[in-house]
Design goal:
This protein is an alpha/beta fold. The protein has 13 helices and 10 strands. Helix 1 runs parallel beside helix 10. The radius of gyration is 26 Å and the shape is elongated.
Length: 361
Amino acid sequence: MTGRVSFVGAGPGAADLITVRGAKRIAEADVVLWAPSVIEVECVREHARPDAELVDFSRVTDADVVEVYRRASVGKLKVVRLHAGDPSLWGGLRDQQDACRRLGLETDVVPGVSQVSAAAAAVGRELTTSDVAQSLLLVGPESAEHVEEFAAHGTTMAISASGARAGLLVERLRAGGYADDTPVVVAYKVSLPDETVAQTTVGELEACVKEHKLYRTTLFLVGEVLAPPASRRRVAVVEGDEPVRRARPSKWAKRAGRPAAKPGESPSAAAWSAVHDWQETARTKRSAARPKPEPVGEPMLHLVTDQDLPEGAEQPADDEAKPKTKPVVAAAAKRTPTTVRASTTPRKPSGTRAKKNKRVN
């Protein structure tokens, strides 16, 4: 067994927009690298183990981050590096992977909801349509100077650039062929409580940015697809000579629609409760698997733990010290191995398989 570093997309900002796989990686992690300035605190507090080592990588050097990877290689630790949005977009993923592989570490990438998707969802628009634009250009902060060349394609653009240079951005969009009335969506801290999402045009873009006092890196969506949708009247479906076929739910759809919800509890609440159950199981297994490793060399990072007992508190008995899991989770742990692979194909009952074999024979 070697150490592993998982690059996890934390989503655009809101803690509940992380994927289930990303939450599971955090629950298993011995060390979590993250930046509180761009990732919601609840995203880590909700999923990380109490004894996990938390590192703000925005306050340390690249050499310090590599040292964390080296300790993970020596101690066979599981490390999670959280990326805002999706790791594949402007996240410096390749350099991090190369550093891990040189140290003999396994790596995996967990995708996340990007800021581009979240901004489009905030205004209820699709970024590609068959009749307006069928492609999307992504322009990062380091490529903002080439906006004029990209704008010549006349398609939808997602530009991550400094809000303080909005005037220069407008000039380049105009030079590339965008008219002043081209719709623009301005998004900053999208999906967070203090988000700023404004709809404007190329001609009014600079004034909009100044009005909302956006001077840091901001996302700009530009293109005709962002125009408000025209009012559409509903067309009645008239049944002709051909019979109208209604979709029949599959067996898997029926299975998915029957979560074990408690009385008065919604199915979605029951599903989220199940996620928390296996998170606690993952934390318990990781804590009981081995004692907490001692850091190699001089300690550099702050440890967050709540396992120290206060003065005068009695040591709990062995039975009390063991975490109590729900019967359903405990039973599932006995039936399944440590690594669980989900299947999207419903399992047929044994009686059906027996009948089929009988007909074949």
